[in-house]
Amino acid sequence: MKDWKKIFENRTFRLLLFCFLALLLLFAIRQVFFSDGGSVSSYEETQSEARISAMLERVDGIEEASVMIVEEEGRAVSCIVVCKGEDSILSRMRILDLASSALSLPKEKIQVYLS
After folding, report:
1. pLDDT tens for residues 6-37?
2. How do the domains of the chain map onto residue ranges?
3. Where are the beta strands (DSSP E) in 15-108?
4. d(Cα 47, Cα 54) in Å, to the nearest integer?
């Protein structure tokens, strides 16, 4: 027990221990908040989502489009569309009409976000 007291009384040892613990904490923070393997980034687009995205990009006023279809028991229940382009009522209506027709969903189940 006295040996441990002598080790912890050593100022150099305490400084090295503090630095090691600080580095360990920084590494843990990096893993939690800045990791590349998040669930959203590892999402792979389905064939239906890719087809609808391609159709949306052909619509006048839409530059880039990304679509996520939420399914339950093999049926689409909602849809999220994120796209770049003209933020107008006409663009939103075109997006809603296209996604609604392609998925046989009511327009209320489709969320559109223009960036």
Report:
1. 777 888 888 999 999 999 999 888 888 876 65
2. 2-33, 47-114
3. 62-72, 75-85
4. 11
The β-bridge relationship of strands 62-72 and 75-85 is: antiparallel
Distance CA 60, CA 90 (A): 10
What are the C-alpha distances in Å from 10 to residues 1, 3, 15, 48, 79?
15, 11, 9, 65, 62
Split at pLDDT 50, 70, 90, the class of 87 is: confident
Query: What pLDDT shows up at residue 30?
Result: 84
Q: Under CATH, domain 47-114 is a member of which superfamily?
A: ANL, C-terminal domain (3.30.300.30)
pLDDT at 38 over 60: no
C-alpha–C-alpha distance, residues 78 and 75, integer Å: 9
* Residue 91 CB neighbours (<10 A): 19
What is the distance between the alpha carbons of residues 92 and 112, in angstroms, rounded to a whole number? 7
Pairing of strands 110-114, 75-85: parallel
The pTM of the whole model exceeds 0.85: no
